[in-house]
Design a protein that fits this description.
69 residues, Multidrug-efflux Transporter Regulator, Chain: A, Domain 2, three-stranded antiparallel sheet, 3 strands
Length: 69
C-alpha cells in the first residue's frame, strides 16, 4: 500500500507571518479565492489550516510581483 505524502499544515497566523501580511488580508484572500485552506478545525470559529507549500508558492508569486513593480 502506498503512503500518502505528509502535508505540513499551518494556521492563518503563520500564513500571515510568512507572507508579511495581516491576518485580515489572509482572510480576504480566502474570500476572494486567491488562497484556499485545506482544512478547518471544528466549531463556528474554527481555525483555517493551509498547505505550507501553497503558501510558499504564493510568497514567491508576491515577491515576483514586487520585483517587477
Amino acid at each position: 500500500m502506498r503512503r500518502m505524502p505528509k502535508v505540513a499544515l499551518i494556521p492563518t497566523a503563520e500564513v500571515a507571518r510568512r507572507l508579511g501580511r495581516d491576518v485580515r488580508t489572509v482572510h480576504r484572500w480566502v474570500d476572494a479565492g486567491r488562497l484556499t485552506p485545506v482544512a478547518k478545525t471544528p466549531g463556528i470559529r474554527g481555525a483555517l489550516l493551509f498547505n505550507a507549500r501553497d503558501v510558499d508558492k504564493l510568497a514567491e508569486e508576491l515577491n515576483a510581483e514586487q520585483a517587477t513593480a
